[in-house]
Specification:
Blueprint lengths: L12 H10 L11 H11 L21 H4 L9
Helix pairs in contact: 1-2
Length: 78
């Protein structure tokens, strides 16, 4: 599997959809969000689907989405 997540545009929807297909997730709906895609990828890999949940405040995991997940953002964007 190529490492999509090391590319500069790693967090865009197209890259996430491509990664999801590579690991066997094919029926994701018409317009999945970034949050939905990342959580589905986490579940498919056998990890907890914790992206942008309240668990991020105490997270010590070193996953590829850590920086994006722990970024401060307005509540209405979550």
């Amino acid at each position: 599997m190529r490492n999509i997540l090391n590319r500069k545009d790693a967090m865009n929807i197209e890259a996430l959809q491509s990664l999801a297909c590579e690991i066997g997730l094919h029926q994701l709906g018409d317009m999945p969000t970034q949050k939905f895609l990342i959580r589905e990828i986490q579940k498919q890999r056998g990890n907890e689907a914790c992206y942008l949940t309240d668990k991020r405040y105490a997270c010590s995991e070193d996953c590829e989405w850590r920086a994006s997940c722990q970024k401060l953002r307005a509540v209405w964007l979550r």
